[in-house]
Amino acid sequence: xxxxxFIKKDCLNKDPSTVKFNFLENGQDQSGFIVFFDKxxxxxxxxxxxxxxxxxxxxxxxxxDENKLIICATHGALxxxxxxxxxxxxxxxxxxxxxxxxxxxxxxxxxx
Length: 112
Ligand code: FES
Prior knowledge:
about 110 residues; mainly beta; Rieske Iron-sulfur Protein; 3-stranded antiparallel beta sheet; binds FE2/S2 (inorganic) cluster
């Protein structure tokens, strides 16, 4: 059965900004996040492609200093917010796991 997570767009009121959520997948707790970047929304699993760790360096802080790229807190891999592609670091060329995201007028729905 599909698992749906509903998030109010108001939670992402800056560009860029992020919001985290948790979900169950195959009975295991997982973390995901939505990125609002350049006026568009993207959803990814919160898991680096180098090692199985969460990306954020503080809770819900995903961006590097210039707010242009997502950075992994562990070894500094840099990911493009629009595609989830790793541009630099030990997992260069790999992609964050993209989650299914539906954008409605006031709400975002992630379907697992
Ligand atoms: S665990 Fe993310 S770059 Fe190594």
